[in-house]
From TrEMBL:
Homotetramer. Keywords: NAD, Oxidoreductase. It comes from the Bacteria. This is aldehyde dehydrogenase (NAD(+)). The active site is at 268. Residues 39-494 form the Aldehyde dehydrogenase domain. Transmembrane segments: none annotated. CDD domains: ALDH_F7_AASADH. Belongs to the aldehyde dehydrogenase family. Its EC number is 1.2.1.3. The lineage of its organism: Bacteria, Bacillati, Actinomycetota, Actinomycetes, Kitasatosporales.
Length: 514
């Protein structure tokens, strides 16, 4: 069942401009193409929305300078007062919920409900960060010496460089920015060159929130551009923390460069998330979770379910239900009511999907459903595709790598040990799930020798995490943690303080001297 008509690029351009204006982006900010500038496109048609100026090297330099200057002021503002800025930002995001969601749909191709969810994720993290602004707790430790107090304080860190990806064009920015601002840091943001418009809208709202709450304008700077723009941030010694979301390839380049200057690094790289479905699983519940996690967002979340590891005894029944559910997925215009799967971000993404499907078949994989392009005549420059399920004889190379498209590989197992070995036998370690009604199996999955991922779930899919937990993963996923729990600590520096309030000077470890 395929949406028959697609919107026209001209209409999308007009709608995007209206939404941008409503968010306070001045018309001069778009259609300012100049040499080496960016092109904002919409994956709905593959058409061009407008040209945008990319930041020059001097502009990036100036942005970091302004953020560094603002930091000197901002770090001294009491944390609860910093929370006022984040609170105002959350209010503005709420007021512009519809504007932002439509921009996310037009630019990233998300269906309306998921685009609204992305905006909600921004509002949620603002709430979290406002509360956090009164809870940046350090601890007091027992000193081994009489008349001494041993404690730790958390201080603002500096300028945070945020590099974000197209697939969560604004939520991941907000995780970093809301927390960083509450922590007393300032932010320079380099969004994906595939989603510059949504970033203009968010930056305008934050500028307004800063003005409304008397925060220095330099608490946030947006720098649009491609790879070189990101490199300037990565190499700038004034950027204390580089928080980068994207591919493993990007992380491999960013990591050593930041490490070489002893900068701090927070990496959110690829995932190759799996769900184990055991023989006791509630299959109907599992199917709903699987389909949302594997086909939702057209398979373009870092938490997307990419591997299904099913017990032999239930594989037949489960796959029948999954294939049936995939048949109900409406692929098409993400602005249209009833669409569940929008376009891939680009034709290059569909080519990568085709290559992976060919490789899987060469390895003996059998496509159970999907993989076909749709709406190609209507929009030859767009990349609509039916999500695919492929049964694999083994966890071959193509299964072990992340293809950013809706392909779900299915493997079967006999013992839970076997399932865990398959589960952990990939280079990435972001998100994971087990579907079971057996408590022993569930606990085993969550134990030290169970799932090796940063996120491990029971009877719920791999994607769609709440903001309250720490988000991130191990191995090639990069080890970073963002969003909730105590992820804020990455955005602050810890000072250990020993105070001697006695009139003698005992040395630690019983050392005697002088
Ligand atoms: C991402 O895909 O980069 O857990 C982030 C989720 C979302 C965030 C995904 N809350 O799927």
């Amino acid at each position: 069942d395929i949406g028959s008509s697609l919107p026209r690029t001209e209409d999308l351009r007009r709608r995007a401009q209206e939404r941008l204006s409503a968010c306070g982006v001045r018309p001069g900010a778009w259609d300012g193409a100049r040499d080496g500038g960016l092109t904002a496109r919409t994956p709905l048609t593959g058409g061009t929305l407008c040209g945008l100026p990319a930041a020059s090297p001097q502009e990036v330099e100036a942005a970091v300078g302004e953020a560094a200057e603002a930091f000197a002021v901002w770090r001294m503002r009491p944390a609860p007062a910093r929370g006022a800025l984040v609170k105002r930002l959350g209010e503005l995001l709420g007021e512009h919920r519809e504007d932002l969601a439509e921009l996310v749909t037009i630019e990233a191709g998300k269906i309306r409900s998921e685009a609204l969810g992305e905006v909600q994720e921004m509002i949620d993290i603002c709430d979290f960060a406002v509360g956090l602004s009164r809870q940046l707790y350090g601890r007091t430790m027992a000193s081994e010496r009489p008349g001494h107090r041993l404690s730790e304080s958390w201080h603002p860190l500096g300028v945070v460089g945020v590099i974000s990806a197209f697939n969560f064009p604004v939520a991941v920015w907000s995780w970093n920015t809301a927390i960083a601002l509450a922590c007393g840091d300032t932010v320079v943001w380099k969004p994906s060159e595939q989603t510059p418009l949504t970033s203009l809208a968010c930056a305008a709202l934050l500028t307004r929130a800063a003005a409304d709450t008397d925060a220095p304008a330099g608490v946030h700077r947006l720098v649009l551009g491609g790879r070189e723009t990101g490199e300037r941030l990565v190499d700038d010694a004034r950027v204390a923390l580089v928080s980068a979301t994207g591919s493993v390839r990007m992380g491999r380049e960013v990591g050593p460069r930041v490490a070489a200057r002893f900068g701090r690094l927070l990496l959110e790289l690829g995932g190759n998330n799996a769900a184990v479905v055991t023989s006791s699983a509630d299959l109907d519940l599992a199917v709903r979770a699987i389909v949302f996690s594997a086909a939702g967002t057209a398979g373009q979340r870092c938490t997307t379910l990419r591997r299904l590891i099913v017990h032999e005894d239930v594989a037949g029944a489960l796959l029948e239900k999954v294939v049936h559910a995939y048949g109900q997925l409406r692929v098409g215009d993400p602005l249209a009511e009833g669409t569940l799967v929008g376009p891939l971000i680009s034709c290059a993404a569909r080519e990568a999907m085709d290559e992976a499907l060919a490789a899987a078949q060469a390895d003996g994989g059998k496509v159970l459903t999907g993989g076909e392009p749709v709406l190609q005549t209507e929009a030859p420059q767009a990349a609509y595709v039916r999500p695919a399920v492929v049964r694999m004889p083994a966890q071959t190379a193509v299964v072990r790598r992340e293809t950013f498209a809706p392909i779900l590989y299915v493997l079967t197992y006999r013992t839970l040990d076997e399932a865990l070995a398959l589960h952990n036998g990939v280079p990435q370690g972001l998100s994971s799930s087990i579907f079971t009604r057996d408590q022993r199996e569930a606990e085993r999955f969550l134990a030290a020798d169970g799932s090796d991922c940063g996120i491990a779930n029971v009877n719920i899919g791999t994607s769609g995490a709440e903001i309250g937990g720490a988000f991130g993963g191990e191995k090639e996923t990069g080890g970073g943690r963002e969003s909730g729990s105590d992820a804020w600590r990455a955005y602050m520096r810890r000072a250990t303080n020993t105070v001697n309030y006695s009139d003698s000077l005992p040395l630690a470890q019983g050392v005697s001297f002088l």
